[in-house]
Design a protein that fits this description.
The protein is mainly beta and 190 residues long. The chain contains 1 helix and 9 strands. Strands 1-2-3-4-5-7-8-9 form an 8-stranded antiparallel beta barrel. The radius of gyration is 18 Å and the shape is elongated.
């Protein structure tokens, strides 16, 4: 998945050589709360994206989000073998309004979330065909889920080509997957 994202970035950068600051890149870090079936994960998150200004009121943005990772040795693991990783590729349209100090925006989009969860639990695994059960105590989810994304944020002007981004977003997808995230990042116009 990272390779696909790198190819998309390189293609968009090659087209930007002829653009007049219509492209921008995003690098953000934050915190996310993931929930899928009976598993929850609250962890640090990051977002890498590239956008294009279609009109003065609309942007088109694509990118990759690391939505949290839990290793068996992590202090927040509930068992010695708990492992979880959530990541996603997204495509979104951003409506915006410019002001004296920056741009207010809202985001509507779609995301492909890769959810990989392996957990030992005292509970019986749900009867969902997407959930594999080995014995009564070991549950796993390993799926690509389609999800919708809604977010709002503000890009503060720092320099003519640099902005400070604050953003919150809500993601809801298949198999009762939900995520709520907050990010602080940098937007570079090129």
């Amino acid at each position: 998945m990272n390779r696909q994202f790198a190819i998309v970035i390189l293609c968009l950068l090659s087209f930007s050589a002829h653009a007049e600051r219509n492209f921008y890149g995003i690098l953000s870090a934050g915190y996310v709360q993931n929930e899928v079936q009976d598993f929850e994960l609250d962890k640090a998150s990051y977002k890498l994206g590239i956008g294009y200004e279609l009109t003065p009121q609309w942007y088109l943005e694509a990118g990759f989000q690391g939505l949290g990772e839990l290793n068996a040795s992590d202090q927040f693991a509930t068992a010695d073998s708990d492992v979880a990783e959530f990541s996603g590729l997204y495509l979104a349209a951003l409506g915006k309004a410019r002001g004296q100090y920056g741009e207010l925006f809202y985001r509507l989009g779609m995301m492909r979330v890769d959810a990989n969860v392996q957990s030992i639990s005292n509970l019986t695994c749900p009867g969902d065909p997407a959930v594999a059960s080995v014995g009564p105590a070991i549950c796993s989810v390993d799926n690509s889920l389609l999800a919708g994304v809604f977010g709002v944020g503000f890009d503060f002007y720092i320099h003519h080509s640099t902005m400070l981004r604050f953003e919150v977003e809500y993601i809801k997808g298949e198999q009762d997957y939900t995520a709520t995230a907050a990010y602080v990042g940098v937007r570079l116009n090129f």
